[in-house]
Design a protein that fits this description.
By secondary structure, the protein is α/β, with parallel strands linked by helices. The chain has two domains: about 240 residues, Aspartate Aminotransferase, domain 2 (3-Layer(aba) Sandwich), CATH 3.40.640.10; about 100 residues, Aspartate Aminotransferase, domain 1, CATH 3.90.1150. The longest helix is centred in the C-terminal third of the chain and has 21 residues. Bound molecules: pyridoxal-5'-phosphate. Pyridoxal-5'-phosphate binds next to helix 3.
């Protein structure tokens, strides 16, 4: 078996030991005599998996005891809508910091339900950075503030969380959860599709403060009601049992590796290696401004854009996969999620060095 270097943006790279655990448990879950995908979500053996995933996430992120953790379906894309449905009363409005495609989508989904106002919008600048506190203001009557902690497509990231001026705060942390610092207690809703930094697609982690849980209005469709999912411990209907198992395994792998702080150190080392190389010559043109660069997704161009297809083709020949920039922005993107090894970035930098010398 040859496992190539996976720089894909999502679903992203998984640790090999997680894949081994999946293989083993597919046939027989523990010593239950039944396979992982053939096990009832109502069984004690599956309940133990949900409980373990919950406990691991709480330990890793330091989630306050009175917060709820849900494992839902529908991706982060459903949470754009579902968070607003649960948090916005008639006549209320949310305020959004628009830093890329995903916050634009959140903006438009919230707008379908109620009021929404962009308090900062980086579109004019091509989404090359995130704002600092002085560049936006928050209304006293904002129901909540929404932001995207890491902009997967443009390659920018908040290195300090926004200042919501005391208003409730919602974050889409899909592409940096457990890979960057996150103060859960400063937020009321944290949501993340798991397929970027937590492993499997088909599971969405939603973390709710007591305020966010209580805010939900009456009469919502059950599947869209946080309170319903919370009261049933994420088992209101049949969850993605396989995905929750994979998530539990990924969280265990992060814990064994020293937790979030250790993951941040490794991610910082990987990103520094790449950015230092990008900064070393005008041949490469990083997209994001230095202060806003993402540790998870680096984006850049080759100064001569016409060389990009050759670069990407040569990369694939060397087993460096998934480096093509998002179709909406072009160029090159390297996603360096928790499970990507430093050796993969070293291999990428070696190819960049070779490619540059071939063309200068
Ligand atoms: C990928 C991504 C999404 C969309 O996630 P789905 O799970 O596909 O709905 C939303 N927000 C961010 C920041 C993402 O990276």
């Amino acid at each position: 078996m040859t496992r190539l270097h996976n720089f894909g943006a999502g679903p992203g790279v998984l640790p090999l030991e997680v894949i081994e655990a999946c293989k083993k448990n597919l046939e027989e879950l523990g010593s239950s005599g039944l396979g992982l995908m053939e096990t009832s979500h109502r069984s004690p053996v599956f309940q133990a998996i949900v409980d373990e995933a919950d406990a691991r996430l709480r330990r890793l992120l330091g989630i306050p005891d009175d917060y709820s953790v849900l494992f839902l379906q529908g991706g982060a894309s459903l949470q754009f809508h579902m968070s607003a449905l649960n948090l916005l009363d008639q006549g209320e409005h949310a305020e959004i910091i628009v830093t890329g495609t995903w916050s634009q989508k959140a903006y438009s989904e919230i707008g379908k339900l109620g009021g929404v106002r962009a308090i900062w919008d980086g579109a004019q600048e091509g989404f090359t950075r995130v704002p600092d506190h002085s560049e936006y203001s928050v209304s006293e009557d904002a129901a909540y503030i929404h932001y995207t902690s890491n902009n997967t497509i443009y390659g920018t990231q908040f290195h300090e969380m926004p200042d919501s001026r005391g208003r409730p705060m919602v974050v889409d942390a899909s592409s940096d959860i457990t890979g960057a610092h996150l103060d859960v207690s400063a937020h009321d809703v944290v949501y993340a599709g798991a397929q970027k930094n937590l492993g499997p697609s088909g599971v969405t982690v939603v973390i709710l403060s007591p305020w966010a849980l209580e805010k939900g209005r009456e009469g919502l469709p059950s599947m869209l009601d946080y309170k319903v999912h919370e009261s049933k411990g994420s088992l209101f209907n049949t969850p993605n049992t396989y995905g929750i198992f994979v998530l539990k395994e990924v969280l265990g792998w992060i814990e064994r590796g020293g937790g979030v702080q250790a993951a941040i150190s490794r991610n910082t080392a990987k990103a520094s290696l790449l950015y230092d190389h990008l900064d070393s010559s005008d041949f490469w043109v990083p997209r994001a401004l230095k202060s806003s660069r993402s540790v998870m997704n680096a984006t850049w161009r080759i100064s001569d854009h016409s060389l990009e297809p050759d670069f990407l083709e040569g990369a694939e020949e060397r087993g460096l996969m998934g480096l093509k920039g998002h179709r909406s922005v072009g160029g090159i993107r390297a996603s360096m999620y928790n499970a990507l090894e430093l050796s993969s970035v070293e291999a990428l930098v070696a190819w960049m060095t070779e490619f540059e010398s071939m063309h200068s």
